[in-house]
Input
Amino acid sequence: MQNYILLLNKKHSILLEKGKKTSTKFGVADLRDVEYGDIVEVGKQQFIAVKPTFIDMLKKCRRGAQIIMPKDAVQIIAITGLSQGWKCLDAGTGSGFMSIFLANMVGKGGKVITYEKRKEFYSIAKRNFEMCGLKNIRAKNEDVKNFRERNLDLIIFDMKDSTKFIGKATRRLKPGGWLVVYSPHIEQQIEAIERMRENNMNVYATLENITRKWKSMYGYTHPVISDVIHTGFMTFGRKTL
Ligand SMILES: C[S@@+](CC[C@H](N)C(=O)[O-])C[C@H]1O[C@@H](n2cnc3c(N)ncnc32)[C@H](O)[C@@H]1O
Output
């Protein structure tokens, strides 16, 4: 993140590498001597240079597999209380968006271990982690069925057939630790609830998070018509005895 600058004005934002000259749709942006807080001219546009947040960085990250979007990831914080210092397991890594979100929430004292069985997605995610400057993610190019971590605060499964691993996940969580099963289809959620109950978990809820942006044009206001409404469902379970 320290290697990037976000150029921001009231209509546009561009994320660029610090200390470089880069061509943009507005003209060449010369950031060789630019610091956060400076005013930058690019073509006819004027911008302020600000430090990007990790959400700005996610927009620049490459996508391979389908991602968990920030609007769903925040729901995980709201329910589990995900905090600094937590030890989390995330599978499959996919494009690494969920892991990046977790790594920023758990901070330097926390840890994210993430498993991805496909080499091409593992490589995309590794590049995304490096671009975001994250040092608290341990990415493994392995099937999650063999995961070895114990005493976890949180496990997130976002992959086909994840319900097969709920028994093992329960044994590897701390008492009070959380398991979140994410999927686009409700059938996997129904199965997740059954497996969680069989494993003596406290099943908190299954939910989806629907957000709608609104826009106003020529005095008429309504939800943005082309927005994606359904992304996925999440079932939350908590380890008990
Ligand atoms: C939908 S993507 C995950 C996206 C990720 N949550 C994100 O936010 O970027 C699912 C990923 O799980 C991987 N996967 C499926 N089964 C797996 C397994 N048994 N072990 C490890 N990875 C697996 C797939 O290759 C795919 O990349």
